[in-house]
Design brief:
The protein is an alpha+beta fold and 149 residues long. The chain contains three helices and five strands.
């Protein structure tokens, strides 16, 4: 880099539209990857979890998986629907993640998705208290895992 040139900040997607959001999510994924790699220096047991607002085939998710993280919904024990948002019936509806470092992955005994707090009456069972969309806990399902620690 020419020392006389100003530093160019990466496009973090601060603009508008899908491309802007994609740039921001990629920048965030790269930062999460850095934090994850720093955490691995302190412990081999690291979890990265949350609503990442991206599909499994996206560049931000690939960035995290390439760092060695493993997605709970790819564990052999998981047998449910592929999505976590809305009805969850398609992989395009997978926006939420529960990811484990390789050593922690070895301790996972079971994984699942709790959907009963979502209002999708024609798709899956819901809690008795969820009788309409305004009463749903979220439009995102909760991922969980059982680990043998």
């Amino acid at each position: 880099m020419d020392p006389g040139q100003p530093l160019q900040e990466p496009d973090t997607g601060r603009g508008r539209g899908p491309a802007a959001g994609a740039g921001r999510r990629l920048a965030q994924a790269r930062r999460v990857k850095e934090i994850y790699e720093e955490a691995l220096l302190r412990s081999a047991h690291v979890v990265v979890a949350g609503d990442l607002n991206d599909r499994p085939t996206s560049l931000p998710i690939k960035e995290l998986l390439d760092a060695g993280l493993r997605d709970a919904m790819t564990h052999p024990s998981y047998t449910g629907a592929p999505g976590t948002h809305g009805t969850g019936t398609s992989a395009a509806q997978k926006l939420d993640y529960l990811m484990f470092s390789p050593q922690l992955w070895e301790l996972v005994r079971g994984t699942g998705v709790e959907r009963r707090g979502i209002w999708a009456p024609n798709t899956f069972e819901h809690f008795d208290t969820v009788t309409a969309r305004p009463e749903q806990a979220s439009d995102h399902a909760a991922l969980f895992a059982d680990l043998d620690l």
